[in-house]
Amino acid sequence: MSWADFTSAVFNFTDYAELLPLFRDSLLAGAILGLVGGLIGTFVMMRDLAFAVHGIAELSFAGASFALLVGADVIFGSLVGSVLAALLLGVMGVRARGRNSVIGVIMPFGLGLGILFLSLYQGRAANKFGLLTGQIVSVDSTQLSALAVTALVVIAGLVLIWRPLTFASADPDIAAARGVPVRTLSVAFMFLLGISVALSIQVVGALLVLALLITPAAAALQVTAAPRMVVLLSVAFAMLATVGGIMLALGGRIPISPYVTTLSFVIYLVCRALGALRRRRGWTARAAAPPAHA
Is 65 left (phi over 0), alpha (psi -120 to 50) or beta? Predict the structure, then answer.
């Protein structure tokens, strides 16, 4: 493939003005998913659940593949797989050592099941590929409404448990000693995380879901330690990567996931460079604060 063929396949803005209005629902869906991913991602980082997200995505992939095989709704199948996996991990508690061992066991099992179901599926190859790499450009108004309602449930749930969940995520031992229901919060958060993973798979697919739920929050933590700024930047980065990825993918011939993951990665690299510069020059909140005796 020549360089001209490569650039034509990846970036093609011919008739872009005519294409853009046709994908309004997809752009709105991307913004909604970016909002959910940015919010939930901050707690994923606080609770060290990056590996768990990957494990849940594999079970979500198995559920979606089974739904595709039997002719059921793929999103519903993905949701069932995600929630079951997330609740299993939530019941196990907040200790990373035992949790990661179980994730390491169930993750290849879920991936194997998904590959088995896809191998048995005799339909369009594009449907198989979409489960792995995402296919949000085909979202219609009905799917957008369902997505918005589901995202609203996740956001409302997060708002409801925000303060105790933050406390339990920062120091579970002290939170438990103060009477905070740490285990109940863990199960509730994992339930919301399972729904978020199922939603995110529509954009980037099962293989690359970390780019939407991990990378934006990780980038935000590179440039600030203020909790509110971390949340705001995480949401902004996730929405920028998702909506920007969809807009770049409209004219190209390749799936949307490479655009979203590349934008997320670039944002992370920029934030990491800014964070290193900030630390090197002492541009931290503690350094900027006036002395107590002044």
Answer: alpha
Q: Which residue has the tokens 């409404």?
A: 145
Quote the CA–CA distance of 2 and 288 in Å, as a whole number: 52
The overall average pLDDT reported for the chain is 81
CA distances for 56 relative to 42, 108, 238, 265, angstroms = 17, 11, 19, 22
Q: Are 154 and 192 in contact (CB under 8 A)?
A: yes
* pLDDT tens figures, 73-104: 887 888 888 888 888 877 765 555 566 777 77
Spatial separation of the C-alpha atoms in residues 110 and 35, rounded to whole Å: 27
Residue 72 has pLDDT above 60, yes or no: yes
Say if CB 67 and CB 117 are below 8 A apart. no
Two structure tokens written together for 191: 């339930």
Distance CA 70, CA 123 (A): 11
Is the whole model's pTM more than 0.85, yes or no?
no
Q: Are 157 and 188 in contact, with CB atoms under 8 Å apart?
A: yes
Q: Report in angstroms the alpha-carbon separations of 7 from 13, 137, 246, 259, 262.
A: 11, 20, 17, 13, 15
- CA quadruple 273, 279, 281, 285: dihedral sign: positive
